Amino acid sequence: MHADRPIWVRYDLAAIGKSVSPRDFSARPPTLWRYSELLPLSDPAHQISLGEGMTPLLPARRLGAYCGLSDLWIKDESQLPTGSFKSRGMALAVSMAHRFGLHRLAAPTAGNAGGALSAYGARAGMEVFVFMPEDTPTSIQAECQSYGAKVYLVQGLITDCGRIVRQGCDAMDWFDVATLKEPYRIEGKKTMGLELAEQFDWRLPDVILYPTGGGTGLIGMWKAFNELRELGWLRSDKMPRMISVQSDGCAPIVRAFKNRERFCEPWQNPDSTAWGIRVPAAVGDFMILDAIRDSNGCAVAVSESAIAAAAQLAGRLVGVSFCPESAACVLAAQKLLADGLIKPDERIVIFNTGSALKYLSGPQVDLPCLPADKPIDYAAL
């Protein structure tokens, strides 16, 4: 890290372009590791994998017709090993931790990241600590605990959880794998963009709608698209407009975009049942806003009260279990079309970042609950 800001992995793209071409990928197993030249780790001995395959890219004709869109697609990340796109980032983060000989990892989570870290940490034989807001769905609490992670509830928000992890690094000798606190989760998320390009025969869509909390998915895809363009692998110069979608109960990116600011002010009293986008302050806020603006995209907030119904509608019309975060993107598509910011015949992709099944009530879990406004006794954890 430099000045407490994120760092990125960079590649010798000229050398990569001489050693591999897009057609080489099709002969490899359909997992995210097929893009090894564009990932920070290629040694199979350090790859911590749960079989994370390429996720389906599904035409959504009925949902598109309902929304007034003739070329709508769903990239369904719910079919990854831990039920969400977080599998991608944690596969790379935990693999690199294994590569560097780390044995204890910790992270704050709004839900799915904790589940993924717990699973991949278990696969690697590492000790994992997870801190989550006390109102996180019990199903996710139970998921993390089932993988052997040490799970703590916090009487606060994900930002409070992040502070607890950050302040405990020295006392607990754990490595903080929170969003953008290390450079490798974004490289895993980047594979969403690489897959999308390959599935569309190396042509990119006109618009990508992406639910935005910490924003590594959006940032990672934009990084992937720029790397592919520099490599000369894209069959068109057209780049997609990146649309950041949030709930009007927590919309710091939308507010900063509209105010033409590069950094976000923390959102006060955030409220959303879409846990993944209930992030009052994103570490990579400026990177999200840069990607949106560089792509001629925008940021849009949708009505929190309409998200649940949109998830049910999308599920009926697509046959996919839509998480509430991605249901917000369905509402955003309708809003953008009505406002003339997208066209009815444009190719539009919505990422379903996780399964709605993870939000169902699970068994009550007896977990310790930490205060957000008092010092933490790390020795007692």
Structure in words:
The chain is an alpha/beta fold and 381 residues long. It folds into two domains: 57-84 and 186-359, Rossmann fold, CATH 3.40.50.1100; 86-182 and 361-372, Rossmann fold, CATH 3.40.50.1100. 38% of the residues lie in helices and 14% in strands. The chain has helices spanning 13-19, 22-25, 61-67, 86-99, 112-124, 138-146, 158-167, 169-172, 185-199, 216-231, 252-258, 285-294, 307-318, 324-338; strands spanning 57-59, 71-76, 104-108, 127-133, 150-155, 175-176, 207-211, 241-247, 298-302, 347-352, 369-371. Strands 1-2-10-7-8-9 form a six-stranded mixed sheet, sandwiched between helices. The chain has a five-stranded parallel sheet with strand order 6-3-4-5-11. β3 (104-108), α5 (112-124) and β4 (127-133) form a beta-alpha-beta unit.
What are the key terms here?
381 residues, alpha/beta, Rossmann fold, 2 domains, six-stranded mixed sheet, 14 helices, 11 strands, 14% strand, globular
Sequence-ordered SSE layout with sheet pairings:
Elements: H1 13-19, H2 22-25, E1 57-59, H3 61-67, E2 71-76, H4 86-99, E3 104-108, H5 112-124, E4 127-133, H6 138-146, E5 150-155, H7 158-167, H8 169-172, E6 175-176, H9 185-199, E7 207-211, H10 216-231, E8 241-247, H11 252-258, H12 285-294, E9 298-302, H13 307-318, H14 324-338, E10 347-352, E11 369-371
Parallel strand pairs: 2-10, 3-4, 3-6, 4-5, 5-11, 7-8, 7-10, 8-9
Antiparallel strand pairs: 1-2
Helix pairs in contact: 4-5, 4-9, 5-6, 9-10, 13-14
